[in-house]
Amino acid sequence: MRQGCTGRFSQPPAPMLFLLIALTVLLSTAPVIGWRPWPHLKSNATDLQLGDNKKFEGSSEFVHLKYHMGPVLTANITVHTIWYGTWQPAQKKIIREFINSISAAGSKRPSVAGWWKTVQLYTDQTGANISRTVRLGAEKNDRFYSHGKTLTRLSIQSVIKSAVTARTRPLPISPQNGLYLLLTSDDVYVQDFCRQVCGFHYFTFPSIVGYTLPYAWIGNSAKLCPGVCAYPFAVPDFMPGLKPLKSPNGDVGVEGMISVIAHEIAELASNPLVNAWYAGQDPSFPVEIADLCEGIYGTGGGGSYTGQLLDDHDGATYNMNGIRRKFLVQWVWSHILNYCTGPNALDQ
């Protein structure tokens, strides 16, 4: 992200110059590269030739995921949600149930809770694992589009500020164990949405919000680009011969959001301040535990192939069970196994 302003002005005094330089650095630092469902459109570890390696779910030979000594979320995680725009009760219910399923015991295998066990393997510098518990926290509705229907990456932080400083029922401030999800409805456009990202995560600037809070934005692509961000339940226009799969919950836009939400929560837990678990040398452009598995949902997945999935009795496609629903969720990288994995892996 390159943001800021240009103009002619006299040279400021030294203290002011220092502040301007610091602000420029902050504003020019991009949020973590967002999730995209088509890994072959950009450089990705899963596109590398693996030779005789029988596993195509990422490359154990080429990936160098490292721990950079930053914090991970070892305390019980609370997900605070901002519903920006117009949302139907049924849509909210699907997303809430997915989040509640992350820590649900007793779900039929393969389960969302089983998927989270891979994320739990990541530790901080004391050896403490990421928390097993992920719970749904407070919610805030912004049904009147308080910051408009077109948002920039920085204005997203202003939306979060409005939610945590609201006069009535503000979202709680939880820097240590809170994750803040800004979910935009299908009539809201966010900078780079559909062209470069379907969602991204970062942390808020104290200069804008007043606190450093890990957050993620995910958009509903149903009207703008379902073939890009709701694949494989919708397909791109440039692939007319490809038939979309049937979604398990009957809402293609929300169905596409589920996997992006999972992607971002996994990365927020393992890299909340962009200084913990990632591959690559540049923390401004890290390759994180979900980035390494873009577009992989089952055994054999890679490139534009999702991998082996499951079919429900009504013909819907999924790869894991929640409390009462089925979901299609992207796998994440296991630094123990050194490849992408999920609860529906055939070799478990």
From TrEMBL:
InterPro entries: EXORDIUM-like. One of its GO terms (cellular component) is apoplast. It comes from the Eukaryota. It is found in: Secreted, Extracellular space, Apoplast. Residues 1-34 form the signal peptide. Keywords: Apoplast, Secreted, Signal. Belongs to the EXORDIUM family. This is EXORDIUM like 3.
